[in-house]
Amino acid sequence: MSLENFTGGRYPLLKNCFDELVATDGSARPPASAIARFIAKHGDLELCKRQLQLNQTISDMGVCFTLYADGANIDRAWPLDVIPRTIPSSEWQRTSAGLKQRLAALNLFIDDLYNEQKILKQGIVPAELILDSKNFLAPCQGVSPIHGVWANICGTDLVRDEHGQFLVLEDNLRVPSGVSYMLENRTVMKRVFPELFADSTIVPVDDYPAQLWQMLASLSPRGEHVPPCIVVLTPGIYNSAYFEHSFLAQQMGVELAENHDLFVEDDRVWLKTLRGKRQVDVIYRRIDDIFIDPQAFRPDSVLGIPGLIAVWRKGLVAIANAPGSGVADDKVIYSFVPKIIQYYLGEEPLLQNVETYLCQDPLQRSFVLANLDKLVVKPANESGGYGILIGPRASQSERDEMAMAIKANPRNFIAQPTLNLSTAPTLCEGMLEPRHLDLRPFILQGAELYCSTGGLSRVALTKGSLVVNSSQGGGSKDTWIINDEG
């Protein structure tokens, strides 16, 4: 059938960018046809009304995030755009398979690094990149968690290039966040657009909490015949992701605990309850590795549980993600993931990386320094969009400062081409305009592998910006996987 035109041809497609909803001729892509029909029938004014209704629903539900600014914690309502992002299910199946493949290989890699180190001995990955990494944690050596899985929850950031091909931008293997907003976005959109859900075959996302619980339960050292005691370990209410910690604990029906709620005794971890102590089997930790046990890592940590790592090393408690999994959550190691997949699985990667230059390599470093005005430079271990230089949009002084930082510590930086990230129609001051976005799906691995249906789409709300992080002014979109297979 012919597809409706988005906003009567008034939507300004950007050159050399793939638009998620709008084809080059201005028609709606097939997965977005129901949205186009809605806009054609009701117009921009109705979209603005629905955006106000959506904002009020978010406020009523208390969906928020914490922004750190000027030494203060500021709670903000979660920014959700009224126009969803649509992806056909046939494409998502291929993407999901690539994400599962990637996590399976990364877990084999981490397990090898902390044990036999075959990949280092064979020179596939340079040993100095691992052994000199701050994320390679000596107390984790000699351990192999249940199922050989270290990173049980992974948030992989995907972008589309100008041809519409999904590329992996980075892997988040320590304490990936954002899945609660993926779930809440869907809840809000169902309330605001019931007719669109009736007019489309949108694949649900609400099985994620059940899948997360099942994965965590599969890690229990006491086996499947004993109901597992699972806790979500949070740093507390002042953490920027506390909303997510409490949300996931509530959705799974497990305890939300801080370190003072737990203690180690007789080689077990115990939860304090009103009825006495209860043995803990699985800890879903939302605390960085080095703060989790002051006896094993930072002695000044006030967030950790003394003695936890010793119990974990004995296999008497499971921790997800396992301490030390961050050794593969490094933008330098990211560049080796295609080789890691080939080495451990004997397969070609189903998803490609973005072309990456390692500043540790002298030749590649020279290229990066000579082309800072064309490249995006990233520190190896920062997150949240911090420390990134977007060369074409940076001042000369900012590029000079980055050049000095690279020369001082080349191991800490990578560079990538400035991608024309895909766009999607976004409601901006009453008009639909293209804004750049990425996608963070969530992949689980325990006894089995699972990939979320879509993920959290993050959108740069500032015109022309490539920065999508909510901590730096970005917003989000509900991600609709549309069944296109009959």
UniProtKB/TrEMBL annotation:
Pfam families: CP_ATPgrasp_2 (PF14403). Residues 84-460 form the Circularly permuted ATP-grasp type domain. InterPro entries: ATP-dep_Glu-Cys_Ligase-2 (IPR051680), CP_ATPgrasp_2 (IPR025841), UCP005522 (IPR016450). This is Circularly permuted type 2 ATP-grasp protein.
